[in-house]
Amino acid sequence: MSKEEKKLNDIIETNENNGFYTGSVLVSTPDILDPRFTKSVIYLISHNEQGAMGFIINKPIEDIHLTDLVKLQKSKNILNKKNEQKVLFGGPVEIKSGFLLHSNEYQIEDITIKINEHFSLTNDAKALQDLYEGNGPISSLFLLGYAGWHPGQLEKEILEDSWLVLDTNPDLIFNNSFSEKYNLSLELLGIENAYFSRSSGKA
Questions:
Q1: Do 162 and 103 contact (CB within 8 A), yes or no?
Q2: Is 196 within a domain?
Q3: 30: domain CATH number?
Q4: What string of H, E and C letters represents the secondary structure of the chain?
Q5: Taking the model in full, what pTM does it have?
Q6: Helix %, strand %, coil % for the chain, to 5?
């Protein structure tokens, strides 16, 4: 196991504890002023006493597709339509690192990390190549970078009404209508107006 894989294993603690939100979705409120997180939907793959890690799942990087990250092989292959899959901005941490968040039927032995019964995470060039050739997972998102929080930071931000917390499901995570995912998340929270006021949630 490489240092990078061990680091991911150390970060991803999937045991749910009281007060933690592993496996949940974070939906930003207008109190988030950082433009990187404005109207963000984040799938939280880890949250424990050591901090939190997640991926922004609704912000494609303009003009970058999977084909831009994979070199064409010399042989002529019939490529899956997913080779035009968008590349997402996963967050501002380790922005040059690529992560494939995907369904569980696809695994690379000793590399893929199973997050829970619905999602796995692979950080390896082979997964990118497999996806490009149509041999990858059924459902996936390819992301550059991730979002991270220091111990206690996310809890504080939630208490300050910066984030709303939503139960997750694969249909929401892997929905490719990225421009609609924020409003859809708000609807699932019972919020009809996507542009709710900054005072929302405050006493």
A1: no
A2: no
A3: 3.40.1740.10
A4: CCHHHHHHHHHCCCCCCCCCCCCCEEEECCCCCCCCCCCCEEEEEEEECCEEEEEECCCEEEEEEHHHCCCCCCCCCCCCHHHHCEEEECCCEEEEEEEEEECCCCCCCCCCEECCCCCEEECCHHHHHHHHHCCCCCCEEEEEEEEEECCCHHHHHHHCCCEEEECCCHHHHCCCCHHHHHHHHHHHCCCCCCCCCCCCCCC
A5: 0.83
A6: 25, 30, 50
What tokens appear for 139 in the block?
Answer: 């459902």
- The per-residue pLDDT for range 4-38, each reduced to its tens digit, is 554 455 544 444 445 689 999 999 999 898 999 99
Per-residue pLDDT tens digits for 1-10: 455 554 455 5
Question: Does 70 map to a domain?
Answer: yes
What distance in Å separates the CA atoms of residue 184 and residue 144, rounded to the nearest whole number? 23
Determine the structural domain holding residue 76 and report its residue range: 3-188
Instruction: Look at residue 8 and tell me if it is in a domain.
Output: yes
